């Protein structure tokens, strides 16, 4: 046992080593132990309405507070867990943390919602709904509506019937979904009508390229038009600058997330950020862009 923990302690977390089976096994073991030893933390990125200047909620984003390597972004460790049971365990940890945070906020009268990212494997679990209900039963006083689940277009399309079923069942529990990174998959818009998803998050690449290329503005304009017809909410991701914000407002897209509004942060930073953002003159000016 001592030998094992010693080995774990010195296992440098390196995606390169995942090329070998043994390397992948060691990485999975290390991540499993991180879960057991509470080395994961959630950071929260605010989602705002740029016109009403309200904070609608936050997205929970997992980080690994690695004892030697510092704070690791999910891209460094989540891909290793793909297709392993461990990804479901991590996913449940994230949901439970979010529910704990929501409970804390609700007891303080803070009405924020939390969006949690759900992996493809989680969504494919036959007992996804049961497990979610089980988790929520741990927090009976909580408003289920304050939890939102984000799924990638690609994971929804892997088994669209299963995705549609889960989404409808969750809706009955008052838990809604958002479609994440919209536009990066093989999006044929027609599948949207089969998915009862109220919110679509436009991928950051659209926002990034919008200012570089007029074609992208037209594409985005078209997407927004379709979403309005389909009565879906739209959130733009990757709003890094005031120019991005202004261009989105010009197109009638008011809900946004991005580094230019707030970076993901520990929960303790949210109150100070909010105060700062509400008083920011540039952001106050963005809110005055005429309605289209
Ligand atoms: P996502 O769900 O699309 O989350 C947005 C990602 O973009 C986050 O990266 C966030 O930090 C980053 N981001 C936000 N605003 C900006 C911006 O203005 N510019 C740029 N360049 N980036 C921005 P992060 O935290 O590294 O997460 C990456 C992805 O990992 C997430 O993409 C999500 O797919 C996945 N992920 C994160 N947490 C979890 C989790 O708890 N469970 C699962 N299954 N996946 C997660
Ligand atoms: Mg997301
Ligand atoms: Mg996204
Ligand atoms: Mg993404």
From TrEMBL:
<feature type="domain" description="EAL">
    <location>
        <begin position="24"/>
        <end position="278"/>
    </location>
</feature>
<protein>
    <recommendedName>
        <fullName>EAL domain-containing protein</fullName>
    </recommendedName>
</protein>
């Amino acid at each position: 046992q001592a030998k094992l923990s010693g080995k774990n302690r010195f296992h440098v977390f390196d995606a390169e080593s995942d090329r070998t089976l043994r390397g992948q096994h060691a990485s999975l073991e290390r991540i499993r132990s991180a879960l057991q030893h509470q080395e994961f933390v959630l950071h929260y990125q605010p989602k705002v309405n740029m016109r009403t200047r309200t904070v609608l909620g936050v997205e929970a984003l997992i980080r690994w507070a690695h004892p030697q390597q510092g704070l690791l972004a999910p891209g460094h460790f989540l891909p290793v867990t793909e297709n392993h049971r461990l990804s479901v365990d991590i996913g449940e940890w994230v949901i439970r943390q979010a529910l704990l945070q929501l409970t804390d906020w609700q007891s303080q009268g803070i009405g924020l919602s939390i969006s949690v990212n759900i992996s493809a494997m989680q969504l494919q679990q036959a007992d996804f709904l049961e497990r979610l209900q089980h988790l929520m039963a741990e927090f009976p006083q909580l408003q289920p509506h304050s939890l939102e689940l984000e799924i990638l277009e690609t994971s929804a399309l892997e088994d669209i019937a299963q995705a549609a079923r889960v989404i409808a069942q969750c809706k009955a529990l008052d838990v809604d979904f958002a479609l994440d990174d919209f536009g990066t998959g093989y999006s044929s818009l027609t599948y949207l009508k089969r998915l009862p998803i109220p919110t679509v998050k436009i991928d950051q690449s659209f926002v990034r390229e919008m200012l570089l290329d007029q074609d992208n503005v037209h594409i985005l304009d078209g997407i927004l038009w379709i979403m309005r017809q389909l009565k879906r909410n739209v959130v733009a991701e990757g709003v890094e600058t005031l120019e991005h914000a202004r261009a989105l407002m010009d197109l009638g897209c008011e809900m946004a997330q991005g580094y230019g509004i707030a970076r993901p942060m520990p929960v303790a930073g949210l109150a100070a950020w909010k105060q700062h953002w509400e008083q920011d003159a540039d952001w106050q000016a963005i809110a005055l862009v005429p309605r289209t």
